[in-house]
Design goal:
This is HAMP domain-containing protein. This protein is of the alpha+beta class. The chain has helices at about 1-40, 55-65, 105-110, 155, 180-185, 195-205, 240-245, 245-290, 305-335, 340-350, 375-380, 380-400, 430-450, 485-495, 505-515, and strands spanning about 70-75, 80-85, 95, 115, 120, 125-135, 140-150, 165-170, 175-180, 210-215, 220-230, 235-240, 360-370, 405-410, 415-420, 460-475, 480-485, 505, 520-525, 535-540.
């Protein structure tokens, strides 16, 4: 704990020290740039006239003498035409006539009055930057100065932190502007040695304060940074980690040695205690593996009256409860494949699934499917087809569940459901009519949006009532609940004959409704697969509703 507190205090001290040095360096560099900017501001006080040309020449010569960092100075009039160019390394030009209106410096100064150009490397080595200043009046023109940034070297070389601490300056893209090792700066923008310094800046930025990283030589350092907002530069001050935390590291080593000794003693004591409990723990472990593998019949044989015995007793009780829970969940899962959730829960609560056995029952059978779906699916993308089917079956599923019908199967774009099996209903004919009408209402609301997308789809329903054999069919790993008989085939044929929006029923279902639903006779029709014509009736809305 003492070592940790010492480390924390030392880190806070370093953050304050490095931050102070970084801010001081950033202030000095910012003052250096501001001085040049202010000097350039005096160069754009006079308007360009025939009488002021000599004055501009004298002022330019004095500026280069006062500010050694300025390597060249270019003055342009308000139209962006070069009027004067003086340089330390090139021939001077007077009224050169070069059009600088599109020069980035002139454009930037015209927009924001002061423009700081990106850092470039003269002949790939020494860093340079252009500063452009516009006059308060358009007639005063523009001053563009090329600045040698190597002189900032003096600022960073004067920063000392500890014995071996250093500072360096990066521009916004990560190019090295100043470093105590001048060779790193003179190597230019593409020097690989500068990449660790850029990475160090990113680490400090992410931490929001002091951070640990690598310097150009790969040495671990603690570093902090300050920014120069006007030009987007970063001053980073760093101190080798070994120097920063040397005393703390030695204290941590001593603390670590004590911890290792303590851990060894604890391990010996734990081994001695484990020797006395190996057998019961192994039996508990084996029992856990059996339960994890699904063998809920396994029991742990520990008869002691200590904590392990009580744990084994609770474990055995848990295994029994898990076995019961698994059996119940498996039963519900199987039932929900072909029964509504309410019926599945009912069968599970009563514990009696004899209602699913085969029997002869009078049922109402309902078929429904989409009209024009084959043409739609052939002309549409798979995503569009699956989107339509998803919303379609979701709407029908809600209606079937609400009416407590038994969902038998999905077939492509069709659905089959029955009423009165396996759970009896008071009036299967009226229940079938209610279900059919609600199915039409649910799907017709979907058709409005589908047709708005250009999908030419309709929906028809067919229903019939009669005796059928119902029950489970299948094999050990898979059972389905279904209905078999002529009434099933008749309902399917009526569905196939129904137009969009129609509900067609057979004579048995129509007679059982007894006028409680608006029914219209459509006469007799030939239906595929049936020898004789079949009387067909159409059901309209108007079914009395029961509150749900």
């Amino acid at each position: 704990m003492e070592a940790w507190l010492g480390y924390r205090d030392r880190r806070e001290q370093l953050q304050d020290q490095l931050g102070l040095e970084g801010r001081a360096a950033a202030f000095r560099i910012n003052a250096f740039i501001d001085t040049i900017r202010e000097q350039l501001g005096w160069m754009v006080q006079l308007s360009w006239t025939a009488s002021s040309a000599d004055r501009h020449k004298v002022d330019a010569a004095l500026l280069l003498r006062r500010v050694p960092a300025i390597m060249s100075l270019t003055l342009a009039d308000g139209d962006g035409q070069e009027r004067l160019h003086v340089s330390r390394v090139e021939l001077n030009r007077f009224d050169g006539g070069f059009d600088l209106a599109a020069d980035p410096g002139v454009v930037g100064a015209r927009t924001s009055r002061i423009w700081y150009g990106p850092v470039t490397y003269h002949r790939g080595s020494e860093p340079f930057m252009t500063i452009a200043v516009a006059g308060n009046r358009t007639s005063a023109g523009y001053a563009l100065a090329e600045i040698n940034l190597k002189l900032i070297q003096e600022v960073v070389s004067g920063i000392k932190v500890g014995e071996t601490g250093q500072a360096f300056v990066l521009d916004s893209p990560g190019r090295l502007i100043a470093h105590p090792d001048i060779n790193l700066v003179l190597r230019g923008a593409d020097d690989p040695a500068a990449r660790p310094l850029v990475a160090l800046r990113e680490v400090i930025h992410a931490s929001g304060g002091i951070a640990t990283g690598k310097d150009a030589s790969g040495q671990s350092v603690m570093a902090s940074m300050s920014t120069i907002p006007a030009v987007g530069w970063t001053v980073i001050v760093m101190l080798p980690t070994a120097e920063a935390f040397g005393p703390i590291s030695r204290a941590l080593v001593r603390t670590g040695a004590l911890l290792v000794v303590g851990a060894l003693f604890a391990a010996v004591l734990a081994y001695w205690l484990a020797r006395r409990m190996t057998g019961p723990i192994q039996r508990l472990e084996y029992g856990t593996e059996q339960i994890g593998a699904g063998n809920f019949e396994h029991r742990i044989a520990i008869t002691s009256v200590d904590e392990l015995g009580r744990l084994a007793a609770r474990f055995n009780a848990m295994a029994g409860e898990l076995a019961i829970s698994q059996e119940r969940q498996e039963r519900i899962r199987r039932l929900k494949r072909f029964l509504s959730p309410q019926i599945a829960e009912l069968v599970d609560r009563t514990g009696d699934d004899n209602i699913l056995d085969g029997q002869r029952v009078t049922v109402s059978v309902i078929f429904c499917d989409l009209r024009g779906f084959t043409a739609f699916s052939a002309a549409s993308s798979p995503d569009a087809v699956m989107d339509v089917l998803g919303s379609y079956f979701e709407a029908l599923g809600r209606v079937v569940t609400a009416h407590r019908a038994t969902l038998i199967s999905f077939t492509g774009d069709g659905l089959m459901a029955i009423l009165n099996a396996p759970v009896r209903v008071t009036d299967p004919a009226l229940a079938a009519a209610r279900l059919a009408i609600d199915m039409q209402a649910a799907v017709q609301s979907l058709l409005v949006s589908w047709r708005g997308k250009g999908h030419q789809i309709g929906f028809g329903v067919g229903a019939a009532m009669g005796a059928a054999t119902v029950g489970r069919i299948g094999y050990e790993q898979r059972y389905d609940y279904t209905a078999i008989g002529p009434v099933v085939n008749l309902a399917a044929r009526l569905c196939a004959s129904a137009a969009d929006g129609q509900i067609l029923v057979d004579v048995s279902l129509a007679d059982s409704l007894g006028g409680r639903v608006t029914i219209a006779s459509l006469g007799s029709r030939p239906l595929k697969g049936l020898k004789d014509d079949v009387p067909v009736f159409s059901v309209s809305d108007g079914v009395p509703r029961e509150p749900r």
